[in-house]
Write a structure and sequence with these properties.
By secondary structure, the protein is an alpha+beta fold. It contains three helices and ten strands; from the N terminus they run H-E-E-H-H-E-E-E-E-E-E-E-E. The strands form two sheets. It has a six-stranded mixed β-sheet with strand order 5-6-2-1-8-9. It has a four-stranded antiparallel β-sheet with strand order 4-3-7-10. It is globular and about 45 Å long.
């Protein structure tokens, strides 16, 4: 009986142990300031692991010994794995910083100044090299209108029209 119960429970146990990999990116156009305000939520352990692997140095992003160095690693990583184009023109993304909230790291960025636009193209392949099942929820809010999509590894591109 015990072996039968174990065989029946094994798939349930495996599903409970297997993590899922999801980030959330919200991009909001601030009309009065003419800026794109960007926040990216990434599980802290996943972000820390990829940064350690790429930089080949110890890192604790929750309690960094050197916050400036940690910010630099996060900024460099996001510049390589997140890009935007408005109406076909590449945007310069400025890294503002990050903060920890429970098990996630919120990274804050902006693009400014930016005239109103009709089309926004996004490339987001954050953590794609680390997790074959990585997904990204992307929310874009322009003039109070919210559009969302989900990207699954290996597809990194999304387009929003306003």
């Amino acid at each position: 009986m015990g072996v039968m119960l174990f065989k029946w429970c094994l798939p349930v146990l495996m599903a409970a142990v297997h993590p899922f990999y999801m980030s959330v990116t919200e991009i909001r156009y601030n009309t009065p300031q003419k800026t794109l305000e960007i926040s990216v939520r990434i599980f802290s352990d996943d972000l820390e692991n990829v940064l350690k692997k790429e930089s080949k140095q110890p890192l604790d992003i929750i309690h960094p010994k050197n916050r400036t160095a940690a910010d630099s690693l996060v900024a460099q990583y996001l510049r390589r794995h997140l890009s935007l184009q408005a109406d076909g023109k590449p945007l310069q993304i400025r890294y503002l910083g990050y903060e920890i909230s429970e098990d996630a790291t919120w990274c804050f960025l902006e693009c400014a100044p930016l005239a109103p636009f009709g089309k926004l193209d996004i490339r987001n392949d954050v953590l794609y090299t680390e997790h074959p099942t990585q997904s990204h929820m992307i929310h874009v809010i322009v003039n109070g209108r919210r559009q969302s999509t989900k990207l699954d590894n290996p597809s990194p591109n999304a387009t929003f029209n306003f």
